[in-house]
Write a structure and sequence with these properties.
heterodimer, A: 473 residues, Immunoglobulin-like, five-stranded mixed β-sheet, flat, B: 584 residues, mainly alpha, Cytochrome C Oxidase, Chain A, two-stranded antiparallel ribbon, globular
């Protein structure tokens, strides 16, 4: 294969060289200069333009015919408006495309150089220029007005009874959150993210779990750092030096070792440790050195671990700061409580047909983009900046399967902002179904921290939790 | 600098540390050609993966080694290739290469100046360009690979080394390279502006300037006003990466760790980036439009139609390009009303663009068209400018952008309107001014072959992408087999890749012609195209100071082609007006 490619390149270069030589020689023979384009060449290129134009148009028409129905009918309400706007735009630009390219290629082909002709001296014409300033302006005004009307319809405020769904992105998957019975999302904080709490929802349990996880990590790292062989050996050396220093001190005073026992209080090492303490520390280190926890790390690795330890401690401090939440304010308190009945789903999420949905998009790491082409919906997920988009699904998954004649068809949510190596496969299934099916599905979904709720909260406040679907309808 | 200052110079001062604008323009061109070869090769590599996903290609392993184990492109390497292809093409080939080459060559020659206002700054501009090119290329070889977040390098992806391998050392080099590149472009830009304003020869009024110079002037002004904003974006990103600041970062939990950053906004970067990014599109396009105006007029043997309207549209496009950047950000969650404003300003650009397109076509009407290779490429440019520009109307409409944003539709749009148009302009310029640069002629027949292959493959590659995009296929995907709803449109991918590969190979025809003709080409005459502008009054052999004697004096505009008062079908700018004749 490699050889073949090399061969082709070599042959190509040789062929070109030969070609060039032939032209050079023939040009010399005919005393042809490169800048003098022969009548034959002009005519050839002129006709090639016409041939090219026709072939290009044929290919364009084929592409329109074969791929012009780019997506199935819009499955959302605003998408119908978008599609109508798109068709108008496509018609206009297609017409201009044919018109301008035709003029360009036909004029080029028609007016190619002839020796006995002189070009028309036509430097400007205000009327003509006015025409092609004003006509595009009018057409564009139409496009702008139509476009902005559609845009305003799409981006207006969502209605009060819209279902609130959060689409949460991370490398490389999606999580959806439903607000639950109270129709309000719990506050979330990225510091609280753990494997059981992927969105970092703020609840007492969430905080405790996060603290527990952090403590475990801190302890593990501290052990690693403390049991690092080099660190231990250095510490031991340091203690031994102090001990030696202590002994020299004694020797200087001329005391006998036996008598020194009671006088120790005044004979400390420079860290204020007594001989006994020093000895016990050394013994402790020797004990530690024998343990199987001892590891050997390079300076760089050790430093990295110490850095990480420092960062984890800062992280823990931030979590503790959340704990000092202001409970005096009623609104904050309800937000604090709101998280408990949120429902979190992965893999697929469901929507009821004909009901407005307001999506809130968030991201935990890099920018992602939530793209649902069948609903003509897209919005970036930006870390730190929640974004919104509302839509009303109008065709159920089942109906769309019939329309598409494809029993396997599913709506998808995909990532459309480059986000890393698995960007090309970051997706979630979207199911649109009847209100009834949707309610059933939602009821089956686990409530966030459902176990804890059952154990601790239910006896205390059964009424507050209520029936999750009751207020959604 | 007087003409008699011309003297023998050592190799080093003539070819390497040259202050002469003609030599510097050649240095820019050769560097850009080299960068272009690299960028095209990268695109062929990833087009192989996109056309035939997962298939093994020996050539990939040969060139990419461990980035293509067993000849299958690695996912991270794919993103790195896409990113560096884009960066090199936009900045190094179409900004540095196009402006650097032709502004340098043509500004002093067409306005009648001995050289640039500052030859030294000009040299410095080239050397910074070269240094930044070297750094950018070297970033392909570092651990973790080159920058991989797309050519726009949006943070947090680009800010966090733990987000992807390419956001490590490769990203640092990308940023350093970009700072140097901007410095180079600013030095160049300031020099172009000062030269055009101060060093015009006697009689060269602003309204007699060739349109090339008007385009270069506006381009330089755009660059000087917008590139510093890119530098600030880049410097803030460097600080976020290396110094623990959080300009662009907030609420991030990555690689199992909550980062100690709050309060920044990734959207800020996008505003800063696109404040350069959109004028950048016109920094790339305007010189190509200037070049094609000149070439179309000369080879149609007709004055450019609506000279003043052409200047007006260049100025209008330049001005508007500063107030449209938000159309790259319709789906970032920006206020919908702000979005509406950007829709309005963006669609306004279509008006001066339409004026330009129709003026080109009217210039061709009833002309006496010499279909030289330069002319072919210029006509190709008008076609791609119109075809690609029209889909911009869809993208400018925020309601429509929602569904095609970041899909192949966008890839198709900007590759046709910016990529192909600017490359066609650049190639047209090379074919047209090659005799002025190297004193030799390029082979015309090879030029024809090059043009037709490039036009067919250019459209063949990018036109079908519109349909792939409208079907909902996102850009920067390593492969599409994970999405069943895209299967039917993926038939187009192998066709696109085939065109891309043939198109890339077709450039070998040009490379051969270029380098062969420098040494063995037919010796040029002083004014091979029978053009009016001043550069064709200089001798074929380059001299320091451009004109051996006094500077030429200008008496008329550059577009007196087929003027009925004259026998010849061209009247150089140095010819005095006849008694009773009015300037245009």
């Amino acid at each position: 294969m490699k050889l073949l490619i090399l061969l082709v390149v070599v042959v190509g270069v040789v062929a070109l060289a030969q070609l060039a030589r032939v032209y050079e020689l023939s040009a010399k023979l005919r005393k042809r200069r490169e800048e003098d384009i022969s009548h034959a060449d002009n005519r050839l290129n002129a006709s090639l333009f016409i041939v090219f134009m026709l072939a290009f148009y044929a290919a364009t028409i084929y592409l329109y015919a074969a791929y012009g129905d780019y997506l199935p009918t819009s499955a959302s309400e605003h998408g119908v408006g978008v599609d109508a706007l798109m068709s108008v735009n496509i018609w206009i630009i297609t017409a201009v495309f044919f018109l301008v390219n035709t003029l360009l290629f036909v004029f080029t082909a028609k007016y190619y150089y002839k020796k006995d002709r002189k070009a028309k001296f036509f430097p400007h014409d205000n009327r003509l220029e006015m025409i092609w300033t004003v006509i595009p302006s009018i057409v564009l005004a139409g496009i702008i007005i139509f476009g902005l009307r559609t845009w305003n319809d799409m981006t207006g405020e969502a209605s009060d009874d819209a279902i609130l769904i959060e689409l949460y992105s991370k490398q490389f998957d999606w999580t959806a959150r439903y607000a639950g019975a109270n129709e309000e999302f719990g506050v979330s904080n990225f510091n609280l993210i753990t494997s059981n709490n992927p969105l970092g929802i703020v609840t007492n349990e969430g905080i405790n779990e996060s603290l527990a996880e952090l403590d475990a990590k801190i302890e593990e790292l501290e052990t690693t750092v403390n049991y690092e062989r080099g660190v231990l050996v250095n510490k031991k050396k340091d203690f031994e030096k102090q001990l030696k220093h202590l002994h020299e001190h004694h020797a200087g005073h001329g005391h006998a070792d036996e008598h020194a026992e009671e006088g120790h209080d005044e004979h400390h090492g420079h860290e204020g440790l007594t001989e006994e303490q020093l000895k016990s520390e050394i013994a402790k280190i020797e004990e530690m050195l024998k343990s199987d926890k001892v590891s050997v790390l390079s300076d760089v690795a050790l430093e990295a671990k110490q850095d990480k330890l420092y960062r984890l401690k800062r992280h823990k401090q931030r979590v503790l700061d959340i704990e000092n939440f202001d409970f005096s304010d009623e609104q904050s308190l309800s937000a604090w409580e709101a998280g408990k009945d949120d429902k979190i789903v992965k893999g697929e999420f469901h929507l009821p047909i004909g009901k407005e949905v307001e999506f809130v998009f968030r991201s935990r790491d890099v920018i992602h983009s939530a793209y649902m082409p069948h609903f003509r919906t897209q919005m970036n997920c930006v870390p730190g900046v929640p974004t919104r988009f509302k839509m009303t699904p109008t065709i159920t998954t089942d109906s769309m399967r019939t329309i598409m004649d494809d029993p396997e068809f599913n709506y998808v949510l995909l990532c459309n902002k480059v986000c890393g190596s698995a960007h090309f496969n970051m997706q979630m299934k979207v199911i649109v179904e009847s209100q009834e099916d949707y309610d059933n599905w939602l009821n089956e979904q686990k409530t966030f921290f459902v176990e804890e709720v059952k154990e601790e909260e239910v006896p205390a406040a059964p009424a507050a939790e209520g029936e999750p679907t009751a207020s959604i309808n | 600098m007087a003409a008699n200052a011309h003297h023998e110079e050592s190799f080093v001062s003539k070819y390497i540390f040259s202050h002469d604008h003609k030599m510097i323009s050649k240095q820019f061109l050769i560097t850009a050609i080299f960068m272009g070869i690299v960028a095209v090769m990268l695109s062929v590599f990833f087009r192989l993966q996109l056309g035939w996903p997962g298939q093994s290609f020996g050539i990939l392993e040969t060139f990419l080694g461990k980035w293509a184990p067993d000849g299958v492109l690695d996912r991270n390497a794919y993103l790195a290739l896409v990113t560096i292809h884009g960066t090199i093409m936009v900045f190094f080939v179409l900004t540095g290469g196009l402006s650097g080459t032709f502004s340098n060559l043509l500004i002093p020659l067409q306005i009648g100046a001995r050289d640039m206002a500052s030859g030294f700054l000009n040299m410095l501009s080239y050397w910074m360009f070269l240094a930044s090119s070297v750094i950018m290329i070297s970033s392909l070889f570092v651990e973790g690979g080159a920058a991989s977040g797309g050519w726009t390098v949006y943070p947090p992806l680009s800010a966090l080394p733990q987000a992807m391998p390419g956001s490590g050392m490769g990203m640092t080099l990308w940023l350093v390279s970009m700072v140097l590149f901007v410095a180079s472009s600013l030095l160049g830009g300031l020099n172009y502006i000062v030269t055009i304003i101060n060093l015009r020869t006697k009689g060269m009024k602003m309204t007699r300037l060739p349109l090339t110079i008007w385009a270069f002037l506006v381009t330089a002004i755009l660059g000087v006003l917008s590139f510093p904003v890119l530098v600030s974006a880049v410097v803030l990103l460097i600080m976020d990466r290396s110094m623990g600041t959080a300009f662009y970062l907030s609420d991030i939990h990555i690689a199992g760790e909550a980062l100690d950053v709050t309060g920044g906004s990734p959207i800020l970067y996008q505003h800063l980036f696109w404040f350069l990014g959109h004028p950048e599109v016109y920094i790339v396009l305007l010189p190509a439009l200037g070049i094609s105006s000149e070439i179309i007029s000369t080879n149609s043997r007709k004055p450019i139609f609506g000279y003043r309207a052409m200047i007006g549209s260049i100025l209008a496009i330049g001005f508007l390009s500063f107030i449209v950047w938000g159309h790259h950000m319709f789906v970032t969650g920006m206020n919908p009303f702000l979005g509406s404003v950007f829709v309005f300003t963006t669609l306004l650009i279509a008006i001066p663009s339409a004026v330009k397109a129709f003026n080109y076509i009217t210039t061709l009407w009833k002309g006496n068209i010499r279909l030289t290779p330069a002319m072919l490429f210029s006509i190709g440019l008008v076609s791609t400018f119109v075809t690609g520009g029209l889909t911009g109307i869809v993208l400018a409409d925020s309601a429509l952008d929602v569904n095609v944003h970041d899909t192949y539709f966008v890839v198709a749009h900007f590759h046709i309107v910016m990529g192909l148009s600017a490359i066609f302009g650049m190639l047209a310029g090379v074919y047209h001014w090659f005799p002025k640069m190297f004193g030799k002629m390029l082979n015309t027949k090879l030029g024809f072959a090059h043009f037709w292959l490039t036009l067919i493959c250019g459209y063949g590659t990018f036109f079908p992408m519109h349909f792939v995009g409208m079907a909902g296929a996102p850009r920067r995907y390593y492969e599409y087999s994970q999405f069943e709803f895209l299967d039917w449109v993926m038939d187009l991918q192998p066709i696109i890749s085939t065109f891309a590969i043939i198109g890339a190979l077709a450039q070998l025809v040009f490379l051969f012609n270029f380098f062969f003709s420098i040494f063995r080409g037919q010796v040029a005459t002083a004014n091979p195209w029978q053009a009016n502008t001043l550069e064709w009054t200089t001798p074929v052999e380059h001299v320091h100071g451009n004109w051996p004697g006094a500077l030429p004096e200008v008496h008329r505009w550059a577009y007196d082609y087929s003027n009925p008062n004259y026998e010849e079908d061209f009247v150089p700018q140095t010819v005095p007006l006849k008694a009773g004749e009015e300037d245009h």
